[in-house]
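Milestone M4 deliverable, item 7.
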Amino acid sequence: MKHFISALLLLTLSAGGFSQANHETLILQNGKRFKGFTGRFAPDGLEFVIEKKGAKVFDAKKINMIVSDGKRYYPFESLHRFNGKNIPINKVRHDEEYVYFEAKGKKKEQKLKRDKVFSYNFNEEEVVLYKETIFQGDTLTTERVRAMVEGRQDARIYYKNPYTGLVNFGLGFVAGGTLNYWGVFIPAAYAGIYSSINPLKSKRKVRLLGPRYLSDDYYRYGFNSRAKGEKLKWSVGGGFTGIAIGVGILEYLKNYKPEIIDKIW
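Output delivered:
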């Protein structure tokens, strides 16, 4: 993969530079994105020439993928989980039950159940661990499941919904400040109900994800299923933070300012 990307860079430069159509997008593990093109490979890193800013070397363990012309490339060895998480690795092996790997930046070998891993890229080859199955009469081919995994990858990158966390923080704060610990059921119910709803289609989402979100049912299923998980994460985090603060304030007032409680109630 390293040689492929370097060759792509040389061919493009020899053709007279990069046009808007063949710009690449570097995506980091934290979801940050940079437009530009791949430069040279550095020790344990990659130089990326950022549009209008110049070259910068990125640590290999912080790189998620590179997207070019709608296709995704992994410049370093990486492991791809069904939940959409990509893990940069130094080495990997597998047996019938587990996948053993050493993540970049770590020295200790880790393991995952084999059924948690879709594939891994190592020594410029892809090893697909998924085995085709039939679900409710539908054959889940490797490419269909790959589309689901890529949808989940994109949900991790593009789907952000901090507003649900703020709403549930408010609910948790009010519930905790009035119902004490019993108020925990209100933000919990909100988180469960809201996260079960598919994210709404929007012009911004279609613009970010391209026509594939509308035309590929398996990709869209993968995106929506992971987006629900992201909504749940934001909502639960906000709700229980609000509960903790609300209960804390209520307990403080009970112990040190009872006259305020008497006025409220």
